[in-house]
Structures are given as structure tokens and as C-alpha cells.
Amino acid sequence: MSSNSIERTLSIIKPDAIERQLETKIKKIFLDNKLNIVDSKKVQLSKKEAEEFYKVHQTKPFYEKLCSYLSSGPIIAMILDGENAIQRNRDLMGATDPENAKDGTIRKVYGISIDKNSVHGSDSLINAKAEIDFFFS
Ligand code: CMP
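A: This is the predicted complex of the input protein with adenosine-3',5'-cyclic-monophosphate.
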């Protein structure tokens, strides 16, 4: 596969960003950077659904807190598409911990902490497909 393939990825605007009414600002960042928003929906996951979504992290010490947090309020799940969408979305988001994220990235600008880091994005083709199916199948 070429390194410039059109991909789809899953993006989530997390509860901390929805609470601060950042939906429009964050969506504009994607659109301004040529990531199309193919579909978008606002949902609130149950704790069980959050555990299913984040099951790749189930052995991590922060799993319980992570799942409680994701299910603590409404979120927006989106399918983004564009050239190299998975990596480009991750570049726009910045490092997981906002303290370590580069200037200008979403997490640097809007993130509050490693838990309340405003956005999630798929990290690989295989996870993007599974995460899109989770919300949009
Ligand atoms: P996200 O990209 O949604 O993927 C898993 C989430 O776990 C991550 O963002 C963080 O919000 C959260 N998290 C909490 N603690 C940690 C940690 N020590 N390392 C990585 N992720 C963490």
C-alpha cells in the first residue's frame, strides 16, 4: 500500500471538551486540515460500553479510571477520512499527555490532563476499523 493512501479513522471528542463546548472549534481543526467528517454522532456510553471500546487497555493500571471517565458524560464520535488520516489525526491531536504535546496541537491547546485530554484518535488501521465499527455499524 502506498504511504499516501486515503484512510478512515475514528475520532472522539471527550467529555471534558464537550462540557466546555469545544465541538465546533475541534471540528474546524479537522476540516481546515483536509480531514473530512464523514459521520458524527453524540452519544453517552455506559461503563460497560466504554470497557468494550477501550479493551486494548484492559491490562493497564489506568483502565478503570479511563472507562469511568469516558462514560461520565456525552461524547462525539466521528469518522474522519483523508490522506493518511490516521497519522494526520494523531499529529493534530498531539501527545497523549497535554504537558508533552507540541504547541498548537489539540491536546496542548485544550487538554487539561492525561485523562481529560479532550480527544481520542485511532492508532492503527486495524484499530480504526474496529473503532469505527464500534460506533457506526
Ligand atoms: P486515548 O488516546 O483516548 O487512549 C487511552 C487513554 O488513556 C489516553 O487517551 C489517556 O486519556 C488515558 N490515560 C490515562 N493514563 C494514561 C497513561 N499513563 N498512559 C497513557 N494513557 C493514559
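Residues 10 and 131 are 6 Å apart (CA to CA). DSSP finds seven helices and four strands in the chain.
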